[in-house]
Amino acid sequence: MPDFAAVIAAANCKGGCGKSTTILILAGEYAAQGYRVHIIDADPKKRLLKWGNAGVKPQAIAVSEANSANMRDEIEKARANADVVLIDVEGTANAALTLAVAYSNLVIIPATISPPDVEDGLATVKLIQDMAHASRREIPHGFLWSSVPPAIRSREMANLESQVQQAQIPVIGRIFHRTAFASMFSFQTTLDELPPSEVSGIDKAKADVIRLTDAIDLMINPQATPTAEAAA
Description:
The chain is α/β, with parallel strands linked by helices. It has helices spanning 19-32, 47-52, 71-81, 95-102, 115-135, 155-166, 179-186, 202-220, 228-231, and strands spanning 6-10, 37-42, 61-65, 84-89, 106-111, 141-148, 171-176.
């Protein structure tokens, strides 16, 4: 992470593509790395706010809600008290999404292996590019393949990856479909706090997340060095 509060948004104009899960796995990993984390939940479903109010999250993680009316104020307050600010926005192209993009140091576009996710993800990229042009600054962004079936590469995924590649959009990485990621919501805690006796695949999920945070660090700070575990 850089020496300023990094603002990272998970955005896609389509719902159900893994935005909330992405934010939660990042929050848990950055907290485990010793950072102060603030989650801003701008999704009407408030899954992350409900998770945060369950009372079992690490003290290093704070959660608040926001909408288009108070998004800027929430981001500014969060940046004053956290090292990493993570924003989960609604799955529609609205003012809250636009403001989150405008203030972000990185925008992650989660997408499952489906044409609708990629189509709406590409529309989100266009919004990001328009905001970057309007603000006269670069807004790093990239696709994140979510809920990817482990060890399976289908023809559909190859075609969708080709679409993203042809559009010259970076791919930050992949988050595989693992029980551990879904269990963070059912157990209402972070990946590191899940009980290994009750949840399988925690180690593999942890390795996925470390690879993701290393890729994010390199996009925000090109001088960052990957961790030994992720580089292995």
